[in-house]
Each structure stands twice: as C-alpha cells, then as structure tokens.
Amino acid sequence: MRARLALWSCDIELELREVVLKHKPQAMLDTSPKGTVPVLQLPNGDVIDESIDIMHWALQQRDPNRWLSGYNQEAASLIERNDDEFKSALDRYKYADRYPEQSAETYRAEGELFLANLNQRIESHSEGDKRGYLMGEELSLADMAIFPFVRQFAHVDKPWFYATEYYFLIAWLDKLLNAELFKRIMPKYQPWQAGDTPLILNRASG
User: Fold this and answer.
1) Range of the domain at 140
2) For the chain, how are helix, strand and coil distributed in percent, rounded to 5?
3) Same domain, 169 and 190
4) How many helices (DSSP H) and strands (DSSP E) are in the chain?
5) Residues 140 and 194 in one domain
6) Residue 160: enclosing H or E segment and its boundaries?
7) Domains held by the chain: number
8) 146 and 88 together in one domain
C-alpha cells in the first residue's frame, strides 16, 4: 500500500500487475525470487522489492507534496522502528493463532508501545483544532510510511482501537483514511495473467 501511495503521489506512470500471493505468477518470481510484494521493475531492468525503497525511489524522481521536507535521521529511525519492532508485534497480534506462545492481548500490548509514541508525537505537533503529524505540522514520508501499518493494527479489533485514549493517533488515522490519495489507490483489480492487456496507471487514469 505505501509503495502505491508514493507512486501515485509522485505521479509515476506504471504498469500494474495485481497478484494473489497464493498463486504467484512465474513472471513475478523471475523478477524477484523473494516472492513478496510489492515489486517494482524499472525501465532499465533494475528491480526494487522493498516498499520503503520504492517510496524513496519515487520521491527522488519528484516530490510534489514535499514528503521529504520533514525527513531526517529521526524520521528514518522512526520508520525503521515501525518496520522492525512494530511490524513484528502487528503480525503476531493479527495472526495470533499462528503464534500460540503468547496471547493476542500480549502482542497487542507490545504494539501499543509504538502507538503511544506516535500519539505523543502527533499531540506535540498539534495546537487547538489544528492537528499535526508525526514529524511536525505538515504531512511527511514518515506519516505515509507508517500509517498503513497502524491501519492494519486498528482493523484487528476496531472497537478496541477506537475506545482507546490515543485520541490524536485516531484523528490522524481517520484523516489519512479519508484523504483523496488513499481513496485513489484502494480500487481492486483483477489478478494479472500472462498475455493480459497492460493496465497502465497514472493520475489521469485514476
């Protein structure tokens, strides 16, 4: 999701190949033997198969919404913590039946340490009715790199999440979920098969 957010924000035209991971096309595995999504193959043949690296690549092409304006070592460390510590807790919370060593509540509590940090950050950048973001008063790469994972965490048990006292985090999440950018990248597409007519996506095509 976050790779597609960056590609659309930066108005990068691409050929989309939707895949079902239970039935990975051979062309995907030939391109990236990792067998995970997303995978971006550049016109020169180079392959990027990490979502955060795709985001950075897109923003290096153009950054019309200034996502990189708030990017520094602190932001990089926050994203790294999300991709490591928080994602680990999220996976175990979301699929607790696969990790019977602890309860879902225990895994949720581990993830909450990161949620509390995010909530505090947003609160510190908010004033009155004006709600801030993770790195300041403006939306940045850190927000867009982290918000899809918070969305997943919240959706495991939405009544619980929306009953918490993470008021600033909840408002931040809802604002991003209701943004036009998020709505643009959410349509579902038919899984790609060899021989299909290329599906070209850009802002003009929606």
Assistant:
1) 81-179
2) 55, 5, 40
3) no
4) 10, 4
5) no
6) helix 158-162
7) 2
8) yes
Q: What is the CATH number of the domain that holds 155?
A: 1.20.1050
Per-residue pLDDT of the chain (206 residues; tens, 9 = 90+): 999 999 999 999 999 999 999 999 999 999 999 999 999 999 999 999 999 999 999 999 999 999 999 799 999 999 999 999 999 999 999 999 999 999 999 999 999 999 999 999 999 999 988 899 999 999 999 999 999 999 999 999 999 999 999 999 999 999 999 999 999 998 889 999 999 999 998 765 55
- Among residues 179, 175, 154, 189, which one has the least CA distance to residue 37? 189
CA 77/CA 28 separation, integer angstroms:
31
The answer to whether residues 11 and 34 belong to one domain is yes
Q: Distance between alpha carbon 202 and the CA centroid of its chain, in Å? A: 19
Task: Give the three-class secondary structure for 32.
Answer: coil
16 domain-assigned: yes
Residue 76 lies in a domain: no
pTM, to two decimals: 0.93
